[in-house]
Design brief:
Blueprint: H1 3-24, H2 45-109, H3 116-120, H4 127-131, H5 137-198, H6 202-225, H7 248-259, H8 277-287, H9 296-302, E1 304-306, E2 316-319, E3 325-331, E4 334-337, E5 346-349, E6 355-360
Antiparallel strand pairs: 1-6, 2-3, 2-6, 3-4, 4-5
């Protein structure tokens, strides 16, 4: 095959990839909408890479939204379980008091005395304080009626809380189902995108690898230019994987995260065999004895923020304006992170994505 023939074949394959990409990608800024003609007759490797990255980016946004919805629903389920247990206890207490009041009324009707000891056993956590060792049936009855009414009111309030919590849980489950459905649609599009990527010719694959290497070098330079901390400390050597050795809880977190290198990215996973981006960072800090929020957005909103120039190993670097990706800083201008579906946990330049800010667990 001569050079001109090979060039035509490459352009033809590239154009085919462009058309398929345009079909599978969602409408959005910078992407071709379904049915719209591609204004370019030839799509470069850079364009294909950017479109695929855009799709993976959207997938990560959907994943974080689903993770957050799932976490809220899980917490609400636990809260509702507790409320229902409390309600059951309150209902039993009201019934016991009602039965005791009936027994007291029958005793009085017969002209007998109500045993104060029996009343005290059922009147509350400290019944001896409530009735003050009541010796007369009339005094005991007044105390019994008062406690009974209080318990009835408390039970009604608890019932209202339980009903409201049940309604909120139904809404949270509905929201979680919507986000799960959106995530599934994107997963199908990703599968198509990965088939396109796998179908690239050998020459295209080499060009793509060279492009990624170039972007890595540019990201390393950007980190230095932005004033990012190198993470290097006097007297501290290099850790396996290119990071900086660090001790204490941060050292444990970094060690845990680095030990997961090579494990796959999986939607919503928190280990031990696979992780998503925030699943890795939350699991790492939990292993270090400092549990942190589950999602990258909650980590950004709930942890102490530090300046980029002060970043040190163990800190979390949050990416994109909507805080939908996170990696753990390991020093030397590098992070360890779970990149995206189809990739494994790895190290990367800290500036390989748009940095939103840095947070420090345990600060």
């Amino acid at each position: 095959m001569n050079v001109s023939t090979g060039g035509r074949r490459l352009r033809s394959r590239g154009a085919t990839a462009a058309v398929v990409c345009a079909i599978i990608l969602l409408p959005g800024p910078g992407w071709a909408a379904p049915g719209e003609p591609d204004p370019h007759t030839d799509q470069s490797i850079e364009d294909i890479r950017d479109e695929l990255d855009g799709l993976y980016r959207e997938a990560e946004v959907a994943t974080e939204a689903y993770n957050a919805a799932n976490e809220k629903a899980g917490k609400q389920e636990k809260r509702l379980t507790t409320l229902r247990k409390d309600l059951t206890r309150a209902e039993k207490r009201v019934k016991d008091l009602r039965d005791l009041a009936g027994a007291a009324a029958r005793t009085q009707y017969r002209g007998g005395d109500l045993a104060a000891t029996g009343i005290q056993l059922l009147l509350g956590d400290h019944p001896e304080q409530a009735l003050d060792e009541a010796s007369q049936a009339r005094q005991a009855m007044r105390g019994l009626v008062s406690v009974s009414e209080t318990q009835k009111t408390a039970r009604e309030a608890l019932g209202e809380q339980t009903e409201a919590a049940s309604k909120e849980l139904r809404e949270l489950k509905s929201s979680r189902a919507d986000k799960a459905a959106a995530k599934q649609k994107i997963e199908k599009k990703i599968a198509s995108a990965e088939r396109i990527e796998a179908g690239l010719e050998e020459e295209q694959t080499r060009r793509l690898a060279a492009l990624e290497k170039q972007r890595t070098q540019e990201a390393e330079a950007r980190w230095t230019e932005s004033g990012g901390s190198s993470g290097k400390s006097k007297g501290k050597g290099r850790a396996p994987g290119g990071g900086t050795q660090v001790s204490g809880a941060a050292g444990k977190a970094v060690g845990f995260a680095m030990a997961q290198i090579g494990k796959p990215y999986v939607w919503g996973a928190v280990g031990p065999s696979s992780y998503d981006c925030s699943g890795l960072t939350s699991a790492a800090w939990a292993a270090a004895g400092h549990p942190i929020p589950r999602t990258s957005q909650a980590q950004w909103g709930g942890l102490t923020r530090v300046h980029l120039s002060s970043a040190r190993p163990g800190d979390l670097i949050i990416y994109y304006n909507d805080a939908t990706h996170v990696g753990m800083y390991i020093g030397g201008g590098q992070i360890v992170h779970a990149p995206r579906p189809g990739r494994n946990i790895t190290t990367a330049p800290a500036a390989s994505m748009p940095v939103l800010g840095v947070v420090r667990p345990g600060a």
